[in-house]
Each structure stands twice: as structure tokens, then as C-alpha cells.
Design goal:
The structure holds 2 protein chains of 2 kinds.
Chain A: H1 22-49, H2 59-67, H3 79-113, H4 126-139, H5 142-145, H6 152-176, H7 181-209, H8 214-222, H9 230-249, H10 251-257, H11 261-266, H12 271-293, H13 299-311, H14 315-339, H15 348-366
Chain B: E1 2-11, E2 14-24, E3 29-33, H1 40-47, E4 54-59, E5 62-63, H2 69-73, E6 76-79, H3 91-96, H4 111-123, H5 139-152, E7 157-161, H6 169-186, E8 189-193, H7 197-203, E9 206-211, E10 214-219, H8 221-224, H9 227-234, E11 238-242, E12 249-253
Parallel strand pairs in B: 3-8, 3-9, 6-7, 7-8
Antiparallel strand pairs in B: 1-2, 1-4, 4-5, 9-10, 11-12
Helix pairs in contact in B: 4-5, 5-6
Classes of the chains: A mainly alpha, B alpha/beta.
């Protein structure tokens, strides 16, 4: 027991240390945010400039500049060309940004709160519910609903999506009961699996009874921005803004979740309540955007991973960069959709899955843990 | 100071901890020993608020029953048996998580929070890898980082659930030395579950031995750790020696089958 001398490398404070430099960290964050912002602006310009009809692509940025106060440039864009840019392309670009940004930040939040890298914002039933809602609304018949003051498809998709996720939550809470904190998250995910299967089964049943709408439902499910209008943009904007703000305010909590539900609780996090708030915010935003765009896949799964690979896993970076990166990605993914089979449209859901699926496989091969 | 009154933990029909009474004085280090499934973790987890329990638990005269997570976290820091390690998190961010109970819901870490983190990182000599990711650290370094996070909580009570079970003998000792120095320096009250009986006897002030959820012995190491009791509780064949110089209790495993509880030989 005499020879214990060198076993004490854990001895207190005797070597010089390099104190963590917080200012440097902040500058790093800022660089990433500026980069993300520039990417988004570039994506908007590209999205607004390229299309099957309309002015020469290089005239569009000039025309946009011309519209800014105090700037006057002769862009050579005619009024009818400008109408194409402003009334057709612009809402499509902005809706793409809202959908892509929302799905990505919601995906990042879901992945964080469930500590699971394979999760997307559709985990607890938002997509299955939206699909069922849209299917039910479409059974009424497009000819019938064309005269209605509001289109029932997005409304039904939104409402059923929210109800489905609520059902998952209630089922999950009922069965986790007084069990340990750690099991509650797992129970919720399993409840999601059950509720999603159940919802999909109902949707299939409804479809089989109304085979004439299969084509329409399929088109909705695969997701598209081709019918985007300014009304759609204004409709989903408030939901996206509110849920994004709530999620961004929880970035620190999402970091605490990374040590697991139990340890987060011992650090002072009210795990159940915080998870509920995050899931509600992510779900409302997700339900709102898919109700107008359809079920665009892979964005919410893949974009947060790309961000983590590039900028690190701290949620103070992951959430804002997912928002900007997801928005830019969907705007850009929509461009080949317009051009590939013109004048016909390739739905954006096809393009994102086409890029997303191989990337996802690559991810599974290379990523160790979250 | 921790006071426990009739603390009981049940998992469904199975009783993990029989009504437990006891207290740990301020600045004292009490070790909880006992075989697997004896209730050591259940006791610590009850104090940490991670399992439902009956009875009352108080720290410095304030009951923790029904306390909000945040209020509990400023009183009690907990190091899990197998901490969840976010491999891609930098050390400094991980230690900063210890400040969570001091940061308002929508707030950000204050200058003071960062000062505390710097101080803890200095004290535990983590400065040279403060920017490294947890996944790049060795087991011993990781253990120190986990301790650093608990210290950043600045709670008067530190709960350690078998803090050294994954470490080799050298790192076990380093970790326990570190706890001993921190306890003295910060006047921490420490309650730890420990597997190694010899180390438990050397480092703690007092031991409590649990078996099947019940206290079977408590007091000084020499009184708690006897060959006969270990044979009964652990069903193990050992001799227990006392170091004549410093009175340390040394448990030495011996070959052979111990007698089981009914006095019969346990068949191979």
C-alpha cells in the first residue's frame, strides 16, 4: 500500500490549462449562420431565375433588384415575364423554403428529443395522418369541392395529422404511466409505430372503396410544389414562424437530451413537459407544411445529418442551419423537377427521395452514433 | 446532509428497497455495498428522483419529495453507473450541461456559468482537452469529464453509482482519489455505490451493506466487511485481513465453494 505515488494523475490543478474561449466559439457560430444565409439567398435567386417559360435567367436577379427601394435598373423583363416570375415562381420558391426549412428543423428536433438519428418529423404520425386526411377529403371529389370557398384537402390533412399525433401521445402516455423516465420516450415511439400502422390501414381501406381517386391521392402523397400560390405561402407562414421560434428557443434543452432522458432529469430538465412542448411545436409546423405540399420525404431526415457532419452536433448550430439548409435544399431540388420532363412536372418528392435515399444509405454505412 | 425516512422502492410486485432509514452527515462519504440486485442503485436513484419511491428524502432539512427537477438538481448531483456519452459533444459543452439548473428556461449560460465551468475544468485538469469530443477520450478521461459535469452542478450532495466499475485498477484509484480530494475541497456529502469492497473500505468513512433490499450491516469497514458476512451475503469464499499499519480492510478471494444460506454446499 506504500507504492501509490503515480496513480494520481487525477490530482487537482497542477498543469497549465487552456480555458475554453467562448468568443471564438461565437465567431464560429456566426460564420456558419452567414454561410447558411448566403446559401439560402443564392437558392432563392436560382429558384426564381430558372423555369421552362419566362425571361432569360440572368435578367431575373436584375429585375428583383429593380424592385428594391432606391434602386433602378433596366432589367429588360417585360410585365408578362415578370408576372411569371412573381406570381408563379416566387410563391413556389418561398413555399419550398418554408416546407424544406420546417421539415428539417422539425426533423432535427425529433432526432434530438428521441436521441435517435433515424427519426424524421413523420415519426409520431404527422404524415400518416395528413395522408388519411387528404384521402378522405379527396373522396368528396375535386369537381364537387372546386366550388367550395376553401380547399378541404389541406384543412383535412392538417387536422387529421394533428389528431393522429395527439392520439400517439395519449396512447404512449397511457402505457408509460408511472414507469421510469427512460422508458417513456421508447413507449412513445412504439405508440407511434402502432398508430401509424392503424392510420395507414384506414387510409388503404378508404382508398380501396374509392379506387377512382387513387391517382390523385398518389400525386398528393408524393409531394409537389407545382400548384403553390401566394395564398399557400401566407397560410403556412404563421405556423412555420411560431414552431420555428419555439424550437429555436429549446436548442439548449435539446443538448441536454443528448445525455439521455434520465441524466437530463438529474440536470434539472422536466423531461416529459419539455419533450411535449418540442413535439407539439414540431408537429404543428410539419402538419401545416405537408398539408399544402404533400408528403415530401427525406428532407427532415437527411438535412439535419448533413448539418451535423459539417458544423458539429451542438443544437445552437444544428437547428438554425437545418432551417436554412433545408429551405435551400428544397428550393434547389424543385428546379430539376420543373426542368427534367418539361413542360410536365417531376414531383419534388421524387427528386428529394432520389437524392435522399442513396445519401441515407451512405449515412448508415459511415455514421457510428449520434 | 441527507436524511432518509422509510424510503421504499418497488418495481411492480418486486420490492427493490425495503423501508430504509438513515442519514449522511455533511461532508461525510458513505459507501453502499452489496451484491448485484441488493438495492444499491435503487437507493441512489430514489434520491436522484429517477424512480418512484415511498418515504421521505431530505437534503439539508428540505424534503425532495415532489420537488421540481430543477430544485432537486441544485441539491443533488448524480453520476450514473453507465453515463450516456454523446460522442460528438465537446468536453466543454458537456461540462456546461451541469449548469442547466441555474439557467432560466429560455435563457443562455451566463458569464458566471462559464466561469464555474472554467474553474471545474481547471480543477480536474481537463483544460488540455476541453475542445476535444467525448468520443476521442479514454475511459479514464471520460470518467473525469463526467465527474466535472456533476461538480459544475455545485450541489452539496454527490451521488455516485458504481463510478469505477468500468475502469482498470489504476483508473479506479485515480477516480476515487479525485472524489476524495474534491470532497475535502468542496465539502461535498458523498453517497456512492461501490463494487470493490477493499476500495470501499479504504475511501469511505462508513459503509452500509444491503442484501435483497434490506440493510444487513452498517458502520466502520472493519465491522461491516467480515469473511462470515461476505460468505452469507455474496455467497463468496474470502478471507478478510486488516492491515496492521493503517487498519485498512483487505478482502482476498479464496478458491472453493462457499456455503449457501442454508449451510449446504452449493453444487457446481
Amino acid at each position: 500500500m506504500a507504492s501509490t505515488v503515480d496513480a494520481q494523475s487525477g490530482r487537482l490543478g497542477s498543469s497549465p490549462t487552456r480555458p475554453p474561449d467562448h468568443a471564438e466559439e461565437r465567431r464560429g457560430d456566426l460564420r456558419w449562420f452567414v454561410g447558411g444565409g448566403l446559401l439560402l439567398v443564392a437558392a432563392v435567386l436560382i429558384g426564381a431565375s430558372i423555369g421552362p417559360a419566362g425571361p432569360d435567367w440572368w435578367r431575373v436577379p436584375l429585375a428583383l433588384l429593380d424592385r428594391l427601394p432606391l434602386i433602378s435598373i433596366d432589367s429588360g423583363v417585360t410585365e408578362s415575364q415578370w408576372a411569371i416570375v412573381w406570381k408563379i415562381r416566387m410563391p413556389r420558391v418561398l413555399l419550398g423554403a418554408l416546407v424544406g426549412g420546417m421539415l428539417s428543423i422539425a426533423g432535427a428536433s425529433y432526432q434530438g428529443v428521441f436521441r435517435n438519428p433515424l427519426v424524421d418529423p413523420y415519426l409520431l404520425g404527422a404524415a400518416a395522418g395528413a395522408g388519411l386526411g387528404a384521402t378522405i377529403a379527396l373522396t368528396i371529389g375535386r369537381a364537387e369541392t372546386a366550388t367550395w370557398p376553401i380547399d378541404p384537402v389541406p384543412v383535412a390533412a392538417f387536422v387529421v395529422a394533428v389528431v393522429t399525433v395527439m392520439t400517439t401521445y395519449v396512447v404512449g402516455a397511457a402505457f408509460s404511466g408511472s414507469r421510469s423516465i427512460a422508458s417513456a420516450g421508447v413507449t412513445l415511439v412504439l405508440a407511434g409505430v402502432a398508430v401509424v400502422s392503424f392510420t395507414s390501414a384506414i387510409q388503404t381501406f378508404v382508398l380501396l372503396r374509392n379506387v377512382e381517386i387513387v391517382r390523385e391521392v398518389f400525386r398528393w402523397i408524393i409531394g409537389s410544389l407545382s400548384r403553390a400560390t401566394w395564398d399557400d405561402v401566407w397560410l403556412v407562414l404563421p405556423y412555420v414562424v411560431i414552431s420555428t421560434v419555439v424550437l429555436l428557443l429549446h436548442r439548449r434543452h435539446l443538448d441536454a437530451f443528448r445525455v439521455g432522458d434520465e441524466e437530463a432529469a438529474t440536470l434539472g430538465v422536466d423531461v416529459r413537459r419539455t419533450r411535449l412542448v418540442i413535439v407539439v411545436a414540431a408537429t404543428l409546423g410539419t402538419a401545416a407544411v405537408v398539408s399544402v405540399s404533400g408528403l415530401i420525404g427525406f428532407v427532415g431526415l437527411v438535412v439535419p445529418h448533413v448539418v451535423r457532419l459539417l458544423a458539429g452536433a451542438a443544437n445552437r448550430r444544428v437547428l438554425p442551419l437545418s432551417l436554412m439548409g433545408g429551405a435551400a435544399f428544397l428550393i434547389l431540388a424543385d428546379v430539376p423537377g420543373r426542368m427534367l420532363a418539361r413542360p410536365a412536372e417531376t414531383p419534388i418528392g421524387v427528386v428529394t427521395a432520389f437524392i435522399g435515399a442513396p445519401f441515407f444509405i451512405y449515412l448508415l454505412r459511415t455514421r457510428r452514433v449520434m | 446532509m441527507i436524511e432518509l425516512r422509510d424510503v421504499t422502492v418497488d418495481y411492480g410486485d418486486r420490492r427493490a428497497l425495503a423501508p430504509f432509514d438513515g442519514s449522511v452527515r455533511s461532508g461525510e462519504w458513505v459507501g453502499v455495498v452489496g451484491p448485484n440486485g441488493a438495492g444499491k442503485s435503487s437507493l441512489l436513484r430514489a434520491i436522484a428522483g429517477l424512480v418512484e419511491h415511498a418515504g421521505d428524502i431530505a437534503v439539508d432539512g428540505r424534503s425532495l419529495v415532489g420537488a421540481r427537477e430543477r430544485d432537486r438538481a441544485v441539491k443533488v448531483a448524480y453520476v450514473a453507473q453507465e453515463p450516456v456519452i454523446p460522442y460528438d459533444m465537446p468536453v466543454v459543452d458537456y461540462v456546461l450541461l451541469g449548469r442547466t439548473p441555474y439557467i432560466s428556461y429560455f435563457g443562455s449560460p451566463s458569464t458566471e456559468d462559464r466561469a464555474v465551468v472554467s474553474e471545474v475544468i481547471d480543477r480536474l485538469r481537463l483544460g488540455s482537452f476541453a475542445r476535444r469530443l467525448l468520443g476521442e477520450l479514454s475511459g479514464g478521461e471520460r470518467q473525469r469529464v463526467v465527474l466535472a459535469r456533476a461538480l459544475a452542478q455545485q450541489a452539496p450532495v454527490l451521488l455516485l453509482d458504481e463510478p469505477t466499475s468500468a475502469l482498470d485498477i489504476g483508473h479506479q484509484q485515480q477516480a476515487l482519489e479525485l472524489v476524495a480530494e474534491l470532497r475535502e475541497h468542496q465539502r461535498l456529502t458523498v453517497l456512492s455505490a461501490l463494487h470493490d469492497l477493499t476500495l470501499a473500505g479504504i475511501y469511505t468513512d462508513r459503509l452500509v451493506m444491503l442484501d435483497r433490499g434490506e440493510v444487513v450491516a452498517s458502520g466502520a469497514a472493519a465491522d461491516v466487511i467480515t469473511a462470515e458476512r461476505l460468505g452469507e451475503v455474496y455467497e463468496v469464499c474470502v478471507t478478510v485481513d486488516i492491515d496492521p499499519e493503517d487498519g485498512a480492510v483487505i478482502v482476498v478471494p479464496r478458491r472453493g465453494f462457499p456455503a449457501d444460506r442454508d449451510g449446504r454446499e452449493v453444487a457446481p
